[in-house]
């Protein structure tokens, strides 16, 4: 194997190790989003898991369930978007901006 190809293989292995470590750390990365002026707060992790959901008592109106549903959906989707963006930025540092499908 030529020195150039050996160097490329070594760099690829290092990148793969760093990407694996980042994926392991994804569970530790969290994002928190609050909607409705503090009525709903959601925390998610980098593995797209909802870690906590807090709904203030005053946000619960039996006459307007749709508003509460919208607040929860918005908070969850924004938190997932936020943590995904953070993970993508970290992955971009590893890959040098190279987009690899299926990774964050």
UniProtKB/TrEMBL annotation:
Superkingdom classification of source = Bacteria
Q: Which residues form a coiled coil?
A: 5-32
Checking Pfam families in the record gives:
YbaB_DNA_bd
Give the keywords, sorted. Coiled coil, Cytoplasm, DNA-binding
Membrane-traversing stretches: none
Looking up InterPro entries in the UniProt record yields: YbaB-like_sf, YbaB/EbfC
Q: Does the keyword Thylakoid apply?
A: no
Chief localisation class: cytoplasm
Q: Where in the cell is it found?
A: Cytoplasm, Nucleoid
* Subunit structure, as described in the record: Homodimer.
| NCBIfam families associated with the record | DNA_YbaB_EbfC
The record's similarity note reads: Belongs to the YbaB/EbfC family.
Task: Sum up the protein's function in the record's words.
Answer: Binds to DNA and alters its conformation. May be involved in regulation of gene expression, nucleoid organization and DNA protection.
The name this protein goes by in its record: Nucleoid-associated protein JFN90_02225
Q: What is the lineage of its organism?
A: Bacteria, Pseudomonadati, Thermodesulfobacteriota, Desulfuromonadia, Geobacterales
